[in-house]
Amino acid sequence: MAFGINKRELENWKQQAQNEEVALITHFWYDPKFPHYHSVTKAANSNVNKLAEWGLQYGLKPEWIHHRDPFPHFDLLGEKQVQVLKAEGEYSQIERFCSNLK
């Protein structure tokens, strides 16, 4: 379940992904399988080939893509999450959701 984002942010993320841009959205999150992580970044693109190609620059393997139509995406956690957000210039998302990981 996602917490900490508003409807406009979610709609912008969806629109970017549908326009075949890599869309990044970070939100608070809890999964008992990963109790030490408190947020996740979803990197999505409706064009799975573009998403896979983008992910390679960060060491993300195409087989890690979650094939969820209409928004295939990578789930980014922890250090990789912060690395990608910094490289993509998404400092506000780091400040809001990843301050314990900086």
From TrEMBL:
Taxonomy, superkingdom: Bacteria
Phylogenetic lineage: Bacteria, Bacillati, Bacillota, Bacilli, Bacillales
The protein's name: Uncharacterized protein
